[in-house]
UniProtKB/TrEMBL annotation:
Domain named Fibronectin type-III: residues: 239-332
InterPro entries linked to this entry: FN3_dom, FN3_sf, Ig-like_fold, TypeI_recpt_CBD
Protein name: Interleukin-13 receptor subunit alpha-2
Signal peptide start and end residues: 1-25
Gene name per UniProt: IL13RA2
Quaternary structure (record): Interacts with IL4RA. Interacts with high affinity to interleukin-13 (IL13), but not to interleukin-4 (IL4).
Transmembrane feature ranges: none
Compartments, as annotated in UniProt: Cell membrane
Keywords on record: Cell membrane, Disulfide bond, Glycoprotein, Membrane, Receptor, Repeat, Signal, Transmembrane, Transmembrane helix
Organism of origin: Panthera pardus
Family, as annotated: Belongs to the type I cytokine receptor family. Type 5 subfamily.
Entry membrane topology: Single-pass type I membrane protein
CC per GO annotation: external side of plasma membrane
Amino acid sequence: MAFVHLDVLCFYSLLICTAFSSVSSNAEIKVNPPQDFEIVDPGYLGYLCLQWQPPLFLDKFEECTIEYELKYRNIDSEDWKTIITKNLHYNDGFDLNKGVEAKIHTLLPPHCTNGSEVQSLWSEATYWKSPQGSQETKIQEMDCVYYNWQYLLCSWKPGMGVHFHISYQLFYWYDGLDHATQCPDYIKVDGQNIGCRFPHLEASDYKDFYICVNGSSDSHSIRPSYFIFQLQNIVKPLPPDYLSLTVKNSEEVNLKWSMPQGPIPAKCFIYEIEFTEDDTTWVTTTVENEIRIARISNESQQLCFLVRSKVNIYCSDDGIWSEWSDQQCWKDLSEEKRSLFSSRHILLTE
Ligand SMILES: *[C@@H]1O[C@H](CO)[C@@H](O)[C@H](O)[C@H]1NC(C)=O
Ligand SMILES: *[C@@H]1O[C@H](CO)[C@@H](O)[C@H](O)[C@H]1NC(C)=O
Ligand SMILES: *[C@@H]1O[C@H](CO)[C@@H](O)[C@H](O)[C@H]1NC(C)=O
C-alpha cells in the first residue's frame, strides 16, 4: 500500500510541475541524476547494496537537502519497491535466481524551487549472476525446517535426470555473520550431499536468512539455487505432552496439556485439538494450554483427544504443525461395569 501511495504522490508532483512550467520560470530549474549508480554484491547470497554519488552541479542548491527516489525489483516481478532517502546507499535482499533492476533519480523538494518538486532523469542499473550450468543440474525440492526453534535442517534432491556425480554444497548468511559460511555437517546418501544440519544459530530470527546450494562436478557446471526465508516462519514445534482429560460433570469436560519443552515462549503457541466423543470427532484451536468442552450428550461413554502445536501469528507469519501428541481418553466405567468382561478388559489395557 505504501508504495502505491508514493506512486500517487509522484504522479501529483509531476502534475503540479507540469502545471507550473507553463506559467512560471520554475521549468528552468533542472537537476542532474545521481552519478555512478551501481548494484554491488558483497557475496551475501542475495543481500545487495545499491549505491550512488551525488549529482553534478549541486552547488546551485546549497540551501537544499536533496533526496533520492530509488525503485528496484527482481526482474519479472510486478511491483517496484520505492524508497525515498537522503543517503547514498540502500541495502536489501533479492532473489539471485533472477536478475535485479533498479533506477534512481534526484528530487529537489518544493522549498528549494519556489513551490514545485523537481526531479532529474533516471539513472539505471541491473545485476545478475551469469547463469552457469543447465537447469537440470539445479537441486530440487529444497525443504528447510527449524525444529522446535532450535535445530535448522535443510534437505534437497539432486538435479533431475543427472547421471554424473555432483558434489553439492550449501552456503548460508544472515546479518550478523562476517561472510557466507559453508554447511559444517552434511547429510549424505551414497556419498552425495542431500542435506545440511546447521550449527546453533545465534541471533538469527526475524531477519532474512540466505541460502545458496551450488556444486561442482568433473564434467559439468552446476546451476546454483538461492533461497531466502525467515527462521521464525519455518518452525516445527514438538508435540504437546502430559495430556489430561477431566470430566467435570455430565455436561462439561476439561482438557489440559503441557506446552512443548524448549525455547519457544508460551505466548507463541497455537494448539489444535481433535476431540472425539463416541463416534463424533471435531477439531478446534486455542492459544491457551487448556480448554473446556461441552459434551454433546451426557450419556457418551468414551471421550478422547489429542493435540498438536504450531507457532502462532503473534510470533511469526507462518509455521509448521507439530506431530500429533499421544491420545488421551476417558471411558465411562460405570457403563462398562454392566458388562464385567469389557470392564476387566478396559482396566487391563489402560
Ligand atoms: C525563488 O523566488 C525568489 C523570489 O521570487 C527568487 O529570488 C529566487 O531566486 C527563487 N529561487 C529559485 C531557486 O528559483
Ligand atoms: C558456491 O558458493 C560459494 C558462496 O558464494 C562460493 O564461495 C563458492 O565458490 C561456490 N562454489 C562453486 C563451485 O561455484
Ligand atoms: C441426561 O440429560 C437428560 C436430559 O437433560 C436427563 O434427563 C438425564 O437424567 C441425564 N442423564 C445423566 C446420566 O445425567
